[in-house]
Design a protein that fits this description.
Blueprint (H helix, E strand, L loop, with lengths): L7 E7 L2 H13 L4 E4 L16 E6 L3 H9 L1
Antiparallel strand pairs: 1-3, 2-3
């Protein structure tokens, strides 16, 4: 069975929203669509980030390019 087109994969995790959004902006500026996913009750329970880090996701086709951009 194959995965559906456009599957998203976690490429990095963050302890805070600011760093995650900055990385998302860098990818966006380089033409890579990404999404930030967090489990912190819409910002009300930020301590949840220690249990469930904020995740940055991209499409499978963009993984290598996104990692190179963030490394660089």
């Amino acid at each position: 069975m194959t995965e559906p087109a456009g599957s998203l994969f976690v490429i990095r995790t963050f302890a805070n929203e600011l760093d995650a959004r900055l990385a998302e902006s860098v990818l966006d500026a380089n033409g890579i669509d990404s999404i930030v996913v967090s489990d912190d009750a819409a910002g009300w329970m930020t301590y949840f980030n220690s249990l469930h880090p904020i995740r940055l996701l991209v499409k499978e086709d963009d993984i290598e390019t996104a990692l190179a951009i963030l490394a660089g």
